[in-house]
């Protein structure tokens, strides 16, 4: 029952959270849907409004490009009343009348600076010369020839008997002559009543046309025309606005024909009217599912707890050390799967115990063999020293020194305690090695060393120089005598140790030198002929080993010339023993 009640509480808390989140999200969804619907309606109205303005602009473009009209506006004022000009004027008037079909919604006026006037309406309705007294005429004169002047006019009556036609949209454009001078103006007035049907105001939505100053140009409510919307912002989109203390959703769309904007506002209360209904339905569905879930949860938990009780007793027996026990619980539920997993774990534990026992036995055997292996080298060193002492007592100093060198070299070879040794100890080993090689091959190889101050105590990897000395004796001198120079110095500016190994042997051809440089760092299998000698590793092994230890800080330079000799320079960071260095085996030494 504790499990049942805990589960119900864990479900009830998300249920409350879901209700709160649903309240929040449905509100946003309703608002988004309302905004989307308003935007679609606004786009359709904007398209219709643009169609009216763009058609008017296309007609005005034809007039501005008509050569007969520009010719009459450029004519001498005294010839305007001649018979030829009157005939031309009548022909032009019929053409314009056909283009601008006589309508109460569209008034066209052409005014030339030479006194030429054309109107699509009778002078009795409106005197076109009145335009010269309009205060916006000065702004029209400043308009660029290819530009269009837009203005919303109120209280302009083309027919004084029709007071409902007092609001107009004025479109004015300058007319140029062929010499690009302004010769007149074209003024088109569109009645606001033609635009009003495109403003859909339904379902509490209010749509209007605003000019670039936020003044109402067209509205379903005629009384609102000319009103300045103080809440309107020209730059930046608004999601909501507050008008007279009430919040409204705000959607706008700029017309492509001018900088005016179509604006639609929706009362927030009207947009959220369906939110309560959605919340009620959502809550009812959640309560129904919660009730069904509670019944189902009680039944399922009762079935699941039975194997859990068995599993609990089984785990207690294991805790008392009975590792040979098995649960024997079968089924497809989680408790049965857990029981099978525990059985498999116990099988692995028993297997691991047997393996550990076997490994411990093998380890003790290996330690015993290692102890025996350590006894044999010590016995050999003591025996060699006894032989050397016996030969020395008989006066054979040369052979005694050979045996001493062999003993020292073997001791260094068997000693694996330190990966890094002082350079001076490494050079001492090289001296013993050269002595033995001279004895073996009957060579007269002379070894010269020059260790700068402080370099002899620098720590270097064991047997780092020996492979190159071996190459110099065996391959460089071809079994004959020669000189080998080993020099070392510390480069203070870079904190590195530079070691030079130089011989005066037969050297190498440029082809062999190039191949050696290219393969110095290669990890390919070493040929059998490169594995001859005491150490069993060649120059390439040394380069790879130092690269593993010092990485990119290690530098190798090889110079050689036939019948002159070979010079090898190794340069790597100085290791003073205070900081651990990664060795070739991946361990830390120093």
Give the SSE map.
Blueprint: H1 2-65, H2 67-74, H3 83-99, E1 106-112, E2 117-119, H4 137-141, E3 149-153, E4 168-176, E5 182-191, H5 192-195, E6 206-210, E7 216-219, E8 240-243, E9 246-254, E10 261-267, H6 268-271, H7 275-319, H8 334-393, H9 397-414, E11 420-422, H10 423-441, E12 445-451, E13 459-461, H11 466-476, E14 482-491, E15 496-503, H12 510-519, H13 539-550, E16 555-561, E17 565-573, E18 581-582, E19 588-589
Helix pairs in contact: 1-7, 7-8, 8-9, 9-10
CATH class descriptor of the domain at 1-198: Alpha Beta
- End-to-end span in angstroms? 66 Å
Oligomer: single chain
Any idea what the shape is? elongated
CATH superfamily of the domain at 1-198: PAS domain
**Which percent bin holds the helix content?**
40-55%
| Residue fraction in strands | 15-25%
Rg over C-alpha atoms, rounded to the nearest angstrom: 53 Å
Q: What is the count of DSSP helices, taking H or I runs of 4+ residues? A: 13
CATH level-3 fold name of the domain at 1-198: Beta-Lactamase
Low-pLDDT parts are: 529-537, 576-590
Q: Structural class given helices, strands, pairing? A: alpha+beta
Strand adjacency order, main sheet: 2-1-5-4-3
The average pLDDT score comes to 78
GO molecular function: ATP binding; phosphorelay sensor kinase activity
GO cellular component, one term: plasma membrane
Protein name: Histidine kinase
Keywords: ATP-binding, Cell membrane, Kinase, Membrane, Nucleotide-binding, Phosphoprotein, Transferase, Transmembrane, Transmembrane helix, Two-component regulatory system
């Amino acid at each position: 029952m504790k499990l049942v009640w805990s589960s119900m509480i864990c479900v009830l808390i998300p249920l409350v959270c879901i209700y709160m989140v649903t309240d929040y999200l449905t509100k946003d969804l309703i608002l988004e849907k309302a905004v989307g619907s308003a935007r679609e309606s606004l786009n359709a109205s904007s398209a219709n409004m643009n169609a009216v303005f763009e058609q008017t602009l296309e007609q005005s473009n034809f007039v501005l490009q008509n050569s007969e009209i520009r010719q009459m506006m450029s004519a001498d004022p005294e010839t305007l009343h001649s018979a030829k000009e009157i005939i031309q004027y009548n022909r032009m008037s019929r053409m314009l009348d056909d283009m601008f079909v006589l309508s109460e919604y569209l008034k066209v006026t052409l005014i030339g600076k030479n006194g030429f006037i054309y109107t699509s309406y009778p002078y009795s309705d409106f005197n076109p010369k009145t335009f010269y007294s309009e205060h916006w005429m000065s702004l029209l004169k400043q308009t660029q020839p290819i530009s269009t002047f837009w203005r919303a006019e109120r209280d302009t009556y083309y027919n004084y008997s029709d007071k409902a036609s007092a609001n107009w949209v004025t479109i004015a454009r300058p007319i140029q002559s062929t010499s690009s001078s302004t010769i007149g103006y074209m003024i088109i007035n569109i009645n606001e009543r033609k635009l009003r049907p495109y403003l859909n105001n339904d379902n509490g939505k209010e749509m209007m046309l605003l000019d670039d100053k936020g003044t109402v140009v067209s509205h379903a409510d005629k009384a609102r025309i000319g009103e300045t919307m103080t809440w309107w912002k020209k730059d930046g989109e608004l999601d909501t606005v507050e008008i007279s203390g009430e919040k409204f959703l705000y959607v706008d769309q700029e017309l492509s024909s001018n900088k005016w904007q179509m604006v639609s506002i929706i009362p927030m209360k009207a947009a959220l009217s369906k939110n309560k209904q959605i919340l009620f339905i959502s809550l009812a569905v959640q309560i129904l599912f919660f009730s069904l879930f509670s019944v189902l949860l009680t039944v399922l938990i009762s079935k699941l707890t039975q194997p859990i009780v068995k599993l609990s007793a089984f785990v207690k027996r294991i805790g008392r050390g009975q590792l040979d026990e098995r649960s024997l619980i079968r089924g497809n539920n989680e408790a049965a799967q857990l029981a099978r997993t525990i059985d498999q774990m116990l099988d692995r534990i028993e297997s691991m115990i047997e393996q550990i026992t076997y490994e411990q036995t093998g380890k003790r055997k290996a330690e015993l063999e290692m102890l025996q292996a350590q006894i044999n080298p010590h016995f050999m060193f003591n025996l060699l020293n006894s032989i050397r002492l016996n030969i020395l007592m008989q006066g054979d100093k040369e052979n005694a020194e050979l045996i001493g060198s062999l003993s020292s070299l073997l001791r260094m070879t068997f000693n694996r305690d330190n990966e890094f040794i002082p350079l001076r100890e490494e050079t001492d080993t090289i001296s013993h090695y050269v002595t033995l090689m001279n004895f073996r091959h009957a060579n007269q190889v002379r070894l010269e060393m020059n260790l700068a101050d402080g370099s002899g105590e620098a720590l270097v990897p064991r047997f780092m120089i020996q492979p190159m000395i071996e190459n110099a004796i065996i391959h460089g001198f071809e079994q004959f005598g020669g000189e080998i120079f080993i020099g070392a110095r510390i480069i203070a500016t870079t904190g590195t140790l530079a070691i030079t190994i130089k011989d005066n042997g037969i050297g190498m051809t440029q082809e062999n030198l190039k191949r050696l440089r290219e393969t110095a760092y290669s990890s390919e299998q070493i040929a059998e002929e490169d594995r001859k000698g005491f150490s069993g590793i060649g120059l390439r092994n040394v380069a790879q080993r130092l690269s593993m230890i010092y990485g990119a800080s290690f530098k190798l330079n090889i110079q050689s010339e036939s019948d002159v000799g070979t010079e090898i320079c190794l340069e790597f960071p100085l290791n003073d023993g205070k900081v651990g260095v990664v060795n070739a085996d991946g361990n830390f030494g120093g």
